[in-house]
Write a structure and sequence with these properties.
Elements (H helix, E strand, L loop, with lengths): L4 H19 L5 H14 L6 E5 L5 H7 L4 E6 L2 H14 L4 E5 L13 E5 L7 H13 L4 E9 L17 E2 H10 L2 E10 L2 E8 L13
Parallel strand pairs: 1-2, 1-4, 2-3, 4-5, 5-6
Antiparallel strand pairs: 5-8, 7-8
Helix pairs in contact: 1-4, 2-3
The chain binds S-adenosylmethionine.
């Protein structure tokens, strides 16, 4: 799947005002389970800055703003950002901001302690998912919590969970990429055969073992 970013952003802007009604319904138990677990695993401290990439209408960002020091939500869709801003105003939370930003260029240059992303990375083809994870590592968060479509086994074309708009990676590819850019994957939570959450923590020490190629 390689939909131009502008078309994808427009598609989300067109459904932005109905997005919460559809996604908070009981018809989306997998999405809701993934969102709740992601919020729990992000576990920000009161002085942490959290960056939520593909924030949409701000479900995760607003929940984390209850506990974090500051939360920054970024998305490519103006319509989704508008919804998130209106919810932030209604909530009275003053430590959360929303604006345009892309996975590989989040338009934020402050310090970031925790990066979260829920059901958004799958919109990128695998090569761009790698680039996005590299860009996240460059922000040097101590934790990255990724909830998304991800295959725990081989993708079964006869039984797709999502009919369109999803380019789920395998858990192996995501774990390899996170490890390559310097994270240690500390939790792999399976929500469904095709949906999960990965928790990656920053690895600061050099590995004890060196492969022959490194020597
Ligand atoms: C299915 S929604 C999920 C929104 C929110 N995270 C949630 O859990 O409700 C996916 C969101 O990702 C955004 N998105 C897609 N590609 C993106 C990209 N390359 N960079 C930033 N956001 C992106 C879309 O605009 C949309 O708002």
């Amino acid at each position: 799947m390689d939909e131009p970013l502008e078309d994808l952003a427009d598609r989300f802007s067109q459904i932005a005002d109905q997005y919460d009604d559809v996604h908070s319904s009981e018809e989306k138990p997998i999405y809701n389970a993934c969102a709740s677990l992601g919020i729990e695993l992000a576990d920000p401290r009161p002085d942490d800055v959290v960056l939520d990439l593909g924030t949409g209408t701000g479900l995760i960002a607003l929940a984390l703003a209850e506990d974090a020091g500051h939360v920054v939500g970024r998305d490519i869709s103006d319509g989704m950002v508008e919804q998130a801003r209106s919810k932030a105003a209604d909530s009275g939370l003053e430590n959360v901001e929303f604006g345009y930003g892309e996975f590989r260029d989040p338009h934020y240059d402050g310090d970031v302690d925790i990066v979260v992303s829920n059901f958004a990375l799958h919109h990128l083809p695998d090569e761009q998912k790698r680039e996005a994870i590299e860009a996240i590592a460059e922000l040097t968060p101590h934790r990255f919590v990724l909830g998304d479509a991800m295959f725990f086994g081989s993708p079964d074309p006869e039984e797709p969970l999502f009919d369109h708009g999803v380019d789920g990676a395998t858990v192996g590819m995501l774990v390899d990429t996170l490890t390559d850019v310097g994270f240690v994957v500390t939790a792999v939570e399976r929500v469904h055969d095709q949906v999960g959450i990965l928790v990656a923590e920053r690895r600061d020490e050099e590995p004890v073992y060196e492969s022959e190629e490194d020597q």
